[in-house]
Design goal:
With about 400 residues, this protein is mostly helical. It contains 14 helices and five strands. Helix 1 runs parallel beside helix 3, helix 4 packs parallel to helix 5 and helix 5 packs parallel to helix 7. The model has no long low-confidence stretch (mean pLDDT about 80).
Length: about 400
């Protein structure tokens, strides 16, 4: 066997190096391959295979350079496209905000103009009214109007009105009579043709001026709508999402867009968190005390539905379930007294366990015992402190919720 010459040894060493170079090129490791080729060239400067791999490496590097340039160009174009899209989006957003701001300013200006026009009209109406002599209305006409109102309420099964207010003039007393009739007429929605005819007849007999009629009718409509809105909200019949129900309610009371904006936005804000509050119905024919109790409960975090008669409260109870009922016993303006009202409430299955508290200035032990024998949850006598009232309510509600939880 022939012995290997130094030249053969160099070739063998270069062959091993080039095998690694071939593997590196296939793997795409061009820089490492270049280092190995340089090592092979240094080992055997005259080896033709090294030259071949150098040419192959050069081609691959050129291809890589072209690819990298293309990728860099693609990335630059992508970045440019994204920058253009972002600039366009910002421009569109700025344009939208500018248009929204312009629209709001225009609406505010229109609202301000309407308000200013309304104010001017009211001031003009006041000036005209001040120039006109107050109509002379006979006491007989006023008394006849009162009798007619009371007879009408009696025929419809409604309780008699409380005492009439003492006005400084016959005309002012006539206005009070007319206001009550308007309020009652609007209670169930916009007035009918028959109601308008009756109102016109009463307006003529009481000599009500047109500007006073317009003012009182607007107040009666807004008051009736506000009351209906509160009741519908409390019963769950409407919500901010129920656009159709809201539209139907506005249509029922003939509420304009301007009136809607003035009334409904405030009511929605006021009633928005009410679903998380305990709902308490409060009944007392003393309106001042009713307001004090209602305000106290609201400040303590409760939702209140105040009523001056058990008749009104019972209508609501047919549609909604409160968390508690607080009622006076001696209710002169109601067809049902406190005890009768309690028994009617307990006849409704879903209301049988609702906490019921009597609130009264009476201290007769017989009445207190009667209430407790009926099953009333508690009895608070007037006068009472705010802290006592709130503590009693919270205690009864806590017990009521515990019982509900146990039943489940």
């Amino acid at each position: 066997m022939a012995e290997l010459t130094p030249r053969d040894d160099l070739k063998k060493m270069v062959s091993e190096i080039l095998k690694r170079v071939d593997q590196l090129l296939k793997a795409g490791s061009l820089d490492e391959a270049a280092a190995q080729i340089a090592k092979a060239r240094e080992t055997d400067p005259k080896n033709v295979y090294v030259s071949a791999y150098e040419e192959r490496l050069s081609v691959l590097k050129e291809e890589r350079r072209i690819r990298e340039e293309a990728e860099a160009k693609r990335r630059a174009e992508e970045e440019k496209r994204k920058a253009e899209e972002e600039a366009r989006r910002k421009a569109e957003e700025a344009k939208r905000k500018a248009e929204e701001e312009t629209r709001k300013k225009k609406e505010e200006e229109e609202r301000r103009k309407r308000e200013e026009e309304r104010r001017k009209q009211e001031e003009e109406a006041v000036r005209r009214a001040e120039k006109r002599p107050i109509p002379d209305i006979s006491r007989d006409v006023l008394e006849e109007a009162k009798r007619s109102i009371l007879e009408g309420r009696k025929k419809r099964g409604l309780p008699a009105e409380a005492g009439w207010s003492t006005a400084s003039s016959a005309y002012e007393e006539g206005l009070e009579i007319y206001r009550r009739v308007l309020t009652e007429a609007w209670e169930d929605g916009a007035t009918t043709k028959e109601e308008n005819e009756q109102l016109a007849q009463l307006r003529g007999s009481l000599r009500i001026r047109q500007e006073d009629h317009d003012r009182l009718e607007r107040e009666a409509k807004v008051e009736a709508y506000t009351k209906a809105f509160r009741l519908a909200w409390s019963s769950g019949a409407i919500s901010p999402a129920s656009a159709t129900a809201l539209a139907d309610l506005r249509k029922k009371f003939n509420i304009t867009l301007e009136e809607h904006e003035a009334i409904e936005a405030q009511l929605l804000w006021e009633l928005r968190p009410s679903s998380q509050k305990a709902k308490i119905i409060v009944i007392d024919d003393d309106e001042k005390l009713l307001k004090v109790v209602s305000d106290s409960l609201q400040e303590a975090g409760f939702q209140t539905l105040p009523f001056t008669t058990t008749d009104e409260a019972f209508k609501v109870l047919k549609e909604t379930t409160p968390d508690m009922i607080i009622s006076d016993i001696n209710l002169e303006t109601s067809t049902m007294g406190g005890f009768s009202f309690y028994e009617k409430v307990r006849e409704i299955d879903r209301l049988q366990d609702i906490p019921f508290i009597f609130l009264s200035g009476l201290t007769d032990e017989v009445l207190i015992r009667t209430g407790k024998e009926l099953g009333v949850d508690d009895y608070i006598t007037k006068p009472f402190s705010h802290d006592t009232l709130i503590a009693t309510i919270r205690g009864k509600l806590k017990r009521y919720r515990q019982l509900k939880k146990m039943k489940r």
